[in-house]
Amino acid sequence: MKEPLTLKRKEILYHRGEACKGFYVLVKGRIRLSYPASETSKAATLRLVSPVQTFGETALFSGETYYATAEALEDSKLFFWPIQPFLVALAQDMELNLGLHHAQALYIRNLAQKLHRVEAEDAQTRLVEWLQEHTRPGLAFRLDIPKGLLAEELGMARETLSRQLRKLQDQGVLRMEGTRLTLLQPGFAAGRGSA
Predict the structure, then answer these.
(1) The pairing of beta strand 5-7 with beta strand 76-82
(2) Does 134 share its domain with 60?
């Protein structure tokens, strides 16, 4: 591991299909992992990486290319671990090996849950569950990503997200003050058919 890498906003770290050279740990900023746009669809956000999350390791273990394009959404700082030194360390350190397997299992579980939510749950339920994951009732937090990216993360259109935020505010579940959101009702369960 060397000095941290720095990326400027909108700078591409790697493109989908590039040979995997190693993996990264984000220490500052935010990285968007996405499938590039095609002729028939726009780019799809697969994951928003926040500090201190890792990314790129799936390609490292599969021996394949990177499965997504990594783009800095804001000025970012990250550490890079090249393949060979890391695989040597992994073979020698069982605790590191088990920890990485645990992290991969959590990542796969989160992807499966996200897919289930998009397929089985309405827009309001997905939004409420996201809010419950990111804050506790009564505590304000700042929405530090653009609404368009959050909408992509939740599998809905930006207009749908704005409409659902307004509905939750009208129902007394959420208070919005600019980018500051406060979940007001603990254990609120969204209803069906509110997409």
Answers:
(1) antiparallel
(2) no
| pTM to 2 decimal places | 0.67
Domain boundary residue among 119, 152, 168? 119
- Point out the domain boundary residue: 119, 153, 171: 119
Domain around 128: 122-183
Contact 125, 190 (CB under 8 A): yes
For residue 152, give the H/E element and its range.
Answer: helix 147-154
Q: Are residues 62 and 128 located together in one domain of the fold?
A: no
Residue 195 lies in a domain: no
Q: How far apart are CA 195 and CA 185, in angstroms?
A: 20
Find the CATH number of the domain harbouring 25: 2.60.120.10
User: Distance between CA 165 and CA 159 in Å, rounded?
Assistant: 10
CA–CA distance, 111 with 161 (Å, rounded to integer):
20
Distance, CA of 46 to CA of 156 (rounded, Å): 13
- Tens-binned pLDDT, residue by residue, of the chain (195 aa): 567 899 999 999 999 999 999 899 999 999 999 887 666 666 778 888 989 888 988 887 777 899 899 999 999 999 998 988 888 888 898 898 888 778 778 877 877 777 666 665 788 888 888 888 777 778 888 888 888 888 887 888 889 999 999 999 898 888 888 888 888 876 565 554 444
Count of the separate structural domains present in the chain: 2
